[in-house]
Amino acid sequence: MKVIVDQDACIGSGQCVLSSPQVFDQRDTDGIVVLLQDSPEPGLREAVHEAARICPGLAITLPPS
Amino acid sequence: MTDALFPMPRAAGCPFDPSPELRRRIEEEPVSQARLWDGSTPWLVTRYADVRALLADPRVSVDVAQPGFPHTNAVSKARDAYMKTLMQMDAPEHVAQRRLLISDFTIKRMEALRPRIQRIVDDLIDEMLAGPNPVDLVEAFALPVPSLVICELLGVPYTDRAFFHRVARTLVMDEPDPEQAIAASEELNAYLEELVDRRNAEPGDDVISRLAVEQYRTGVMTRREIATIGQLLLVAGHDTTATMISLGTAALLAHPDQLRQIRDGGDPALVANAAEELLRYLSITHTEARRVARADIEIGGRLIREGEGVIGVKSIANRDPSAFPEPDTLDVRRKARHHVAFGFGAHQCLGQSLTRVELQVVYGTLYRRIPTLALAVPLDELTFKPDAIFYGVRELPVTW
Question: How much is the pTM?
Answer without folding.
Answer: 0.95
